Amino acid sequence: MRALHTAATGMMAQELTVQVISNNIANMRTTGFKRQRAEFQDMLYDQQRRAGMQNSQQGNVLPVGIAIGSGVKPAATSRVMSQGNILPTEKDYDVAIRGEGYFRVQLPDGRTAYTRDGSFELNDQGQLVTVDGNLVDPGITIPTTARGVTINPSGTVQVTLQNQVAPQTVGTIQLSRFVNKAGLESIGDNLFLETAASGQPTTTAPNVDGMGSLLQKNLEQSNVTAVSEISDLIAAQRAYEMNARIISAADQMLQSTSQIMR
């Protein structure tokens, strides 16, 4: 019976939805995390009677037809790249992006990755790095004699050295943006990679040509909303249950048919 296979695809679709929701909820406290959303498409139809065909009996054009669907299939697990809440941390090297853009990070294999996680630290050479030790690109080195560090909204990093009054500029944090942010490839560790779908990055200083601005001593939180995720979870659970009931009903119908044939 076709209903068994159709309902099974519906159950698998809702299982994927629950997996996506569980990952979103698990990352509610992940800095710069962007929630995912499962998207689906209907599958091929069995056209038993096509609309627009002529009725063989009267010769009239049929206004509607008979098309029986075969279920649902996953289409994408797209990311929602909306702005997360910005919260203060009081750490000098914590930086949040307000608006468009991604920090550039140099991976050990030479590739450039992109992130919204601005929880930076200093390595043993005074270089600005991520919590995993990846260098921020372009490289910025803080002198060991620095008494204070300031990162302005335009990305300029200035330090105050001992026995000096005027601050000294040691570099500028640059941001990159993409035509299709949802096309970036997530590789874990709050990092994304450029893909053919995302397009090539446009890199400038913050606050230039629509690029976002920086907020020192702040971090962008996850854009996951607990209430929304819980409501989506309940809806997916109910849809799963209804598909399971269809399988049960189809099984009962087949059982009745087999008993009649005996």
Automatic annotation (TrEMBL):
PANTHER family associated with the record: FLAGELLAR BASAL-BODY ROD PROTEIN FLGG (PTHR30435:SF19), FLAGELLAR PROTEIN (PTHR30435)
Domain Flagellar basal body rod protein N-terminal, first and last residues per copy: 4-34
Oligomeric and partner information: The basal body constitutes a major portion of the flagellar organelle and consists of four rings (L,P,S, and M) mounted on a central rod. The rod consists of about 26 subunits of FlgG in the distal portion, and FlgB, FlgC and FlgF are thought to build up the proximal portion of the rod with about 6 subunits each.
Keywords tagged on the record: Bacterial flagellum, Cell projection, Cilium, Flagellum
Family of the protein in this entry: Belongs to the flagella basal body rod proteins family.
GO biological process: bacterial-type flagellum-dependent swarming motility
Source organism superkingdom: Bacteria
GO CC field: bacterial-type flagellum basal body, distal rod
Xref: Pfam families: Flg_bb_rod (PF00460), Flg_bbr_C (PF06429), LlgE_F_G_D1 (PF22692)
Residue ranges constituting the Flagellar basal-body/hook protein C-terminal domain according to the UniProt record: 216-260
Subcellular location: Bacterial flagellum basal body
Originating species: Phreatobacter stygius
Subcellular location, principal: other
InterPro entries recorded: Flag_bb_rod_N (IPR001444), Flagellar_basal_body_rod_CS (IPR019776), Flagellar_FlgE/F/G (IPR020013), Flg_bb/hook_C_dom (IPR010930), FlgE/F/G-like (IPR037925), FlgG_G_neg (IPR012834), LlgE_F_G-like_D1 (IPR053967)
SUPFAM superfamilies: Flagellar hook protein flgE
Protein name (Swiss-Prot/TrEMBL): Flagellar basal-body rod protein FlgG
Coiled coil, from the record: none
Domain Flagellar hook protein FlgE/F/G-like D1 as annotated: residue spans: 96-159
The keyword Nucleotidyltransferase is assigned to this record: no
